Amino acid sequence: MPVSLSISEILNIAIGIERSGIAFYDIMSRSVEDTRVREIFEYLVIMEREHIRIFQGMLSEADERQPSEIESAEQPAYLKSLVDNAVFTDDMIASEAAKQTDSDIKALELAISAEKDSILFYYEMKEIVPPPAHPTLNRIIAEEKMHLRRLSELKEKMTAA
Q1: DSSP state of 5
Q2: CA distance readout (Å), 57 to 3, 50, 52, 121
Q3: What is the pTM (predicted TM-score) of this model?
């Protein structure tokens, strides 16, 4: 039996992820010592805010009455699992992660993991939202991949030094 999730519900989940990302990267930017790491985290705060703006725009166009039919009953559970197990699920967890991160390399590793989780979530989200939203999601996925690349490159430079 198909499960119904409204596009609005899916977009609100995405907005929540981005808001938590802002809190996570903001806390992390204040907890690291390396200027390069701090700057990339500050940049990611700006990008997460832009993603919220994009999702809010999509939300204003979403029709609450039109649920997305999901053929697999497991897909909503999978999406929920991705969200629930993301590195930055809420401000408290982000704060705890920052306190437990005893090196800039570990901070980068947490951020890399978070970006991977975001990419997975947005690919799954693309399976649910209507096709007109796909170009926007493709752009956000490309940006998340770029974030992942930048974080990975910086980690590689720092570990090689």
Answers
A1: E
A2: 25, 11, 8, 19
A3: 0.77
